[in-house]
Amino acid sequence: MNRPLREQPHRFFLGTRALPCPYIPGRVERKVVTDLATIQAAELYERLSRAGFRRSHGLAYRPACPGCSACVPVRVVVDGFEWSRNFRKLANRNADLTAHEMTAHATMEQFRLFTRYQRSRHAGGEMSSMGFRDYQAMVEDSPIDTRIIEYRDSAGDLVALMLADMQQDALSAVYSFYDPTQDRRSLGTWMVLWMVERCEEIGLPYVYLGYWIEQSPKMAYKARFRPLEGLGADGWRRIGSMPPEYPLTASA
Prior knowledge:
CATH architecture of the domain at 77-206: 3-Layer(aba) Sandwich
Number of helices: 5
Number of strands: 14
Distance between the termini: 28 Å
CATH topology of the domain at 77-206: Aminopeptidase
Radius of gyration: 18 Å
Structural class: alpha+beta
Helix content: 10-25%
CATH class of the domain at 77-206: Alpha Beta
Strand order of the largest sheet: 8-9-10-11-12-7-13-14
């Protein structure tokens, strides 16, 4: 369900209305968005992603919240990735899983797992009420090279899924979900580790993980993947060397 492409000689960026921030109580969230449905969609998104933008359907967006720069775009550096003892244990624990990488195509099997995950982990959230057509649009409505990676156990059952964009310098995690009854596997963390290994295998230097918010417990897990780089006003830098108030870059 790819959107029709069209030439756009001028790039338009629009601001969204203010909404309550889902990550930091008492703050508001605004975004700047632009349409990716152009003939040069892949090239455009390469540039935008390096400037801190993320993709949803055929749009690229970036936080533009008044008086707040808490959202820091982050990416894992594949070369020299630090495999902690816990990471290695986790990899061994999931050694029975097989990854199947394919073009972005939605199936009812995926949707059933997605629904179980939403009802267990995000009951009452916006995505918990999504129907199959909504899920299909999330997966297939992309003007760039988007992949699905299905993870199956030895019985062939689907236990996890990663939706990822293939970029010139990275695999970029768009959305992931998994069997909520298999907590022991820590599948969310394991899928990131799989992406690091996959990038190393195909020669890509980064794994993009979206935004990291130091004050948000929901985002805390991203800081475990080292080396981790964050984007600030003077470019991409290692998280450990970033000053406390590290503003987002405003240029694309």
